[in-house]
C-alpha cells in the first residue's frame, strides 16, 4: 500500500520516507509549528513520527501521510516542499468523514502547491471510502482557509477539538469534480 504515488505533473504526493526527515527538519518554521505540530521537531521525534507514518501505510492504518514533492532540487529533481495527510478516523469526525491537513515549507508557499496537493488527494480519499473531506483551520490562519476555498471546500461552521481549541471547518465531497 505504501507505493501510492499521485501526480499532476507539477506536484507529486508519495508516502513519507526515512530520508525525508532531514529536509523536513530544515524546512520547518514557526508557522508550521504554530499551525500543525505545536512544538519544534527534534530529529529523534521526527524519525519516530515518520516511522509511525510508514507503519500506518504498511498496516492500512487510519493515517496516510504524504510528502508534497515538486521539481527544484539541485539536479532539477524532486524536492520535499511540505506534507499532507489524511486521517480516516479521528475524534470529532463522523463515519465517512476524513480529516485533511497540510503544510508547506516557507520557500514553497504562495505558489499554489498546497491547493494542488489537496486536489490530488481527493480522488484517493474517494477511492479509499471517504464520503466527506474535512479541513480544520485555526481562525487566525487565513492562508490555510484560502487553500481550502480554492480547492472547492465550503465553510461548515466552527467547532472545538477535544482539547478545546476552536477551529473553522471546511468540507467537500471528495467524489465531486471541479
Labels describing this entry:
178 residues; alpha+beta; Aminopeptidase; eight-stranded mixed beta sheet
Task: Describe the overall structure.
It is built from five helices and eight strands, in the order E-E-H-H-H-E-E-E-H-E-H-E-E. It has a single domain, classed as 3-Layer(aba) Sandwich (Aminopeptidase), CATH 3.40.630. It has helices at 21-27, 30-37, 43-58, 113-127, 142-150, and strands at residues 6-7, 11-15, 63-71, 78-87, 97-104, 132-137, 154-160, 166-172. It is globular. The longest helix is centred in the N-terminal third of the chain and has 16 residues, at 43-58. The model has no long low-confidence stretch (mean pLDDT 92). Helix 1 (21-27) crosses helix 3. The protein has 178 residues and is of the alpha+beta class. An eight-stranded mixed β-sheet has the order 1-2-3-4-5-6-8-7, with helices on both faces. It is 31% helix and 30% strand. A hairpin with a 5-residue loop joins strand 7 (154-160) and strand 8 (166-172).
Fraction of residues in H or I helices: 25-40%
Number of H- or I-type helical stretches: 5
For the biggest β-sheet, the strand order reads: 1-2-3-4-5-6-8-7
Weakly predicted, low-confidence segments: none
Look at the structure and give the mean pLDDT.
Answer: 92
CATH fold description: Aminopeptidase
Secondary-structure-based class equals alpha+beta
**Helix and strand sequence:** EEHHHEEEHEHEE
Q: What profile does the largest beta sheet have? A: 8 strands, mixed
In total, the number of domains comes to: 1
Global morphology? globular
State the total count of DSSP E strands: 8
Distance between the first and last residues' Cα = 27 Å
Give the percentage of residues in beta strands. 25-35%
Amino acid at each position: 500500500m505504501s507505493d501510492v504515488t499521485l501526480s499532476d505533473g507539477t506536484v507529486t504526493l508519495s508516502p513519507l520516507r526515512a530520508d525525508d526527515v532531514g529536509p523536513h527538519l530544515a524546512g520547518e518554521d514557526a508557522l508550521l509549528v504554530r499551525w500543525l505540530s505545536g512544538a519544534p521537531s527534534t530529529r529523534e521525534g521526527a524519525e519516530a513520527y515518520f516511522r509511525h507514518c510508514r507503519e500506518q501505510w504498511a498496516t492500512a492504518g487510519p493515517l496516510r501521510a504524504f510528502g508534497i514533492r515538486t521539481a527544484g532540487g539541485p539536479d532539477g529533481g524532486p524536492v520535499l516542499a511540505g506534507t499532507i495527510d489524511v486521517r480516516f478516523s479521528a475524534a470529532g469526525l463522523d463515519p465517512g468523514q476524513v480529516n485533511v491537513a497540510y503544510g508547506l515549507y516557507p520557500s514553497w508557499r504562495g505558489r499554489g502547491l498546497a491547493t494542488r496537493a489537496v486536489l490530488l488527494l481527493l480522488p484517493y480519499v474517494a477511492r479509499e471510502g471517504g464520503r466527506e473531506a474535512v479541513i480544520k483551520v485555526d481562525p487566525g490562519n487565513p492562508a490555510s482557509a484560502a487553500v481550502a476555498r480554492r480547492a472547492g471546500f465550503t465553510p461548515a461552521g466552527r467547532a472545538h477539538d477535544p482539547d478545546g481549541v476552536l477551529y473553522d471547518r471546511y468540507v467537500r465531497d471528495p467524489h465531486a469534480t471541479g
